[in-house]
Amino acid sequence: MTLSAAERRALLRVARVAIARAIGAPAEPDAPREPVSTDSGRASAGAFVSLHRRDGDELRGCIGCFEGRGTLEETVARMAVEAATRDPRFPPVRPFELGGLTIEISVLGPMLELADPAAVEVGNHGLVVSRGSHRGVLLPQVATECGWSREEFLDHTCLKAGLGRGDWRRPGTRLETFTAEVFADASE
To answer: How far apart are the first and last CA of the chain?
Structure first.
């Protein structure tokens, strides 16, 4: 089941307000908003929040979890704050930056172990590759945005895990897929 347009708008607002409060930026007034329904079984869904600079669509932060704790709203708010303040690849978002950021939310479907790498559907599946203590995750939209083939997507997920290209073929490497409902806003 998919989220309605009103639910998507509400989650995007939850993320933006949570970030504003966490970084000390002026928050929007608490205007009435549509509640986010959890009737679709997404109350404990995992979510990733990605922040992009509008001037060039450059990544500014991305953090997520595969299983939510609490409601979807709570998970999105927590991941938004983490993406803005704790992504180790970037310094924390500063208050003046918030207006120039696009917020993208990926609400995750269930994780499924993958027996056959040929079953990966570029643009539909996200990937998790793990081997020992190494683990790499790429969201479904990444392969499409980069124009990757299935094999390139698998290779890049291995690289993100700190493994080598083609390690997805090695015995003992675990592959999992998931789907995601992806939506974004522009700065308000």
So the answer is: 28
Widest Cα–Cα separation across the chain: 54
CA distance 127 to 132: 16
Residues contacting 151, CB < 8 A, separation 6+? none
102 burial level (CB within 10 Å; 0-12, 13-18, 19+): middle
Each residue's pLDDT tens digit, 89-140: 999 999 999 999 999 999 999 999 998 999 999 999 999 999 999 999 999 9
Where do the H-state alpha helices sit in 24-134? 72-85
Q: Give CB contacts under 8 A, 24+ apart, made by 26-30.
A: 26/95, 28/188
What pTM value is reported for the model? 0.87
In the chain the domains, ranked by start, together with CATH numbers, are 5-108 (3.30.700.20), 112-178 (3.30.1490.150)
